[in-house]
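queue> holo job accepted (S-adenosyl-L-homocysteine)
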Amino acid sequence: MPAPYEITREQLAGLLAGEPPFRARQAWDGLHVRLQRPEEMTELPAALRRALGEALPPALREESRRTADRGQTTKWLWALADGARVETVLMHYPDRVTACVSTQAGCAMACQFCATGQGGFRRHLSEGEIVEQVVNAARAARPRRLSNVVFMGMGEPLANYDRVWAAVERICVELGLSARHLTLSTVGVVPGIRRLAAETLPVNLAVSLHAANDELRDQLVPINRRYPLAVLAEACAEYVAASGRRLSIEWALIGGVNDRDADAAELAAFARPLRAHVNLIALNPTPGYPVVGSRPGKVRAFRDELGALGVNATVRSTRGVEIDAACGQLAASPPTSPPVAMSGPAAPSSVRLPQDGPGH
Ligand code: SAH
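queue> job finished
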């Protein structure tokens, strides 16, 4: 049985076979426009609501929720049906509300400095598991409207391309977010960048570069051994030419490792021909990587150095460090205080909906 945000219109209509056709439309819009759970769809007869709720149990079960930044940042730990765990972060800003969603349980890319990479790969997330993170974040954001989604949580989005793209389409077409407010982030999975270049929805692309010479990048971001910088640059150029969108480059500044003048020069040489925008962030602490982030003064100096070299760079504010919700810190480990125990019935493999139940 597909999850609520995996199901197609046809499958939903099939579930509601025997009901008047407008019921399927109501339920579809309830899920995608009003972001309702079936139990909340008061326009449906009560028995139908109940049956639909049993047929479409949520894909994500909340295991814990923590907030930081005076309530402006929330991080959820979700348990999936098979026990895998992922995290989602919601961030309120004055001008936008952003959800940072996971695309895989764990990650196979093994970047040393990233907590998700340190934990290894478990599995890809499904379309429904990705979209439901967005829906849950949007519900929690109310009364504000969720405006942006960044695929920068756990996992490598372009290593799970088909499901991620299906989620992107559902988020744009059905939930109604603008593709221009969606950002896919990649360590540099070149075939994925090439596929993205051929898509028509104008989503943004961010490349997590962190080093602009192959020797250092081979160490920091192991996928570089498969797709070295020259190949990556070519794919990025293809994306920029095809999409007309501005590329972002992510650079986590690591003290003494990639924050020297020579690093700025190499980064500028990579970014300038692409007219890319560089986002700088001081490396956030993770359990498995002993080196610390650059100091704030160094971060600003690096930004200024890039500016002098003709590259547009901004320093990213970090959110949620104290709840391990910041970039690179998502490990899906339970919080130190015990989570509230929850139990739920297993998803039924098929469901019967009442054809003429009471309670309309
Ligand atoms: N796998 C994709 C999506 C995850 S995005 C990607 O890497 O782009 C997560 C972002 O946080 C990436 O830019 C990643 O390089 C960055 N990051 C990882 N570990 C970090 C850390 N310890 N401090 C700051 N940023 C980090």
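queue> The pocket of S-adenosyl-L-homocysteine is lined by residues 109, 113-114, 152, 156, 185-187, 208, 250, 252, 281, 283-284, 286, 327-328 (CB under 6 Å).
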